[in-house]
Amino acid sequence: MRNFEDRTEETQELISMLRANCVHNFFHVTHRDNLSSIFEKGLLCAANHASHDVNPKYYSSDASRYVEARRDSLDRYVKLSFIPCHPMFQGRLDCVSLEVDLDYVCSIPEIKLCRVNSIKKNAKLEDAVKIKTLNFKVLTECIEKQKKDMSYSPKWGTENYTVIQAEILVPLSVPPKAIKTLTK
Questions:
Q1: Alpha-carbon distance 157 to 29, whole Å?
Q2: What is the pLDDT along the chain (184 residues), one digit of tens a residue?
Q3: Residue of 97, 133, 145, 166 with fewest CB within 10 Å of its CB?
Q4: Over the chain, what HEC string results?
């Protein structure tokens, strides 16, 4: 694992660009019952749950997990969101949103970007440098609105809705030290 404090010039540029666009953390939404294992073992990719004796409660369907295991080895990544309250989880009383340290995630050279929900048919994993080309106007607007009203979400089916479903994919795991706080 890379040292938490290691910074390349490219990493610093990425962090500065994200912060300039109101992205100060990434987020992972999970079931409340998963918190004890997350704070003990970190966020684990689905492929590593069994080897770490973790049996999480999932929000995703069996069909979604089947796709993840077969397409681009998605089950080997921890998925993070740019926004604290992902629309898929709104209205659920048993979910929590974890803040994940931006600096830590950006220091991992193998992180990937997916511009849409990664299990969508047209989803493609890209190198993290492509983050610079995201529609930050929409992301910033959503982040700012969710600071005032966590139930805010763009209307389903719109381009804005698709933009906020962008994901950062971290290979294998995120350690407990990179998980900052609960936001819900």
A1: 21
A2: 344 445 588 888 889 999 998 899 999 988 889 999 999 999 998 888 878 888 777 766 666 666 666 666 888 999 999 887 766 666 666 778 899 999 999 989 889 988 887 777 778 888 877 888 888 888 888 888 887 877 777 777 777 777 888 889 999 999 999 998 766 5
A3: 133
A4: CCCCCCCCHHHHHHHHHHHHCCCCEEEEEEEHHHHHHHHHHCEECHHHCHHHCCCCCCCCCHHHHHHHHHCCCHHHEEEEECCCCCHHHCCCCCEEEEEEEHHHHHCCCCCEEECCCCCCCCCCEEEHHHHHHCCHHHHHHHHHHHHHCCCCCCCCCCHHHHHHCCEEEEECEECHHHEEEECC
pTM (two decimals): 0.83
**Tokens linked to 175:** 């350690």
121 occurs within a structural domain? yes
Q: Would you say residue 25 lies in a domain? A: yes
- Quick check: is 98 in a domain? yes
Three-class SS of 65-102: HHHHHHCCCHHHEEEEECCCCCHHHCCCCCEEEEEEEH
Find the domain containing 105 and state its range.
9-182
Q: Please report whether residue 170 resides in a domain.
A: yes
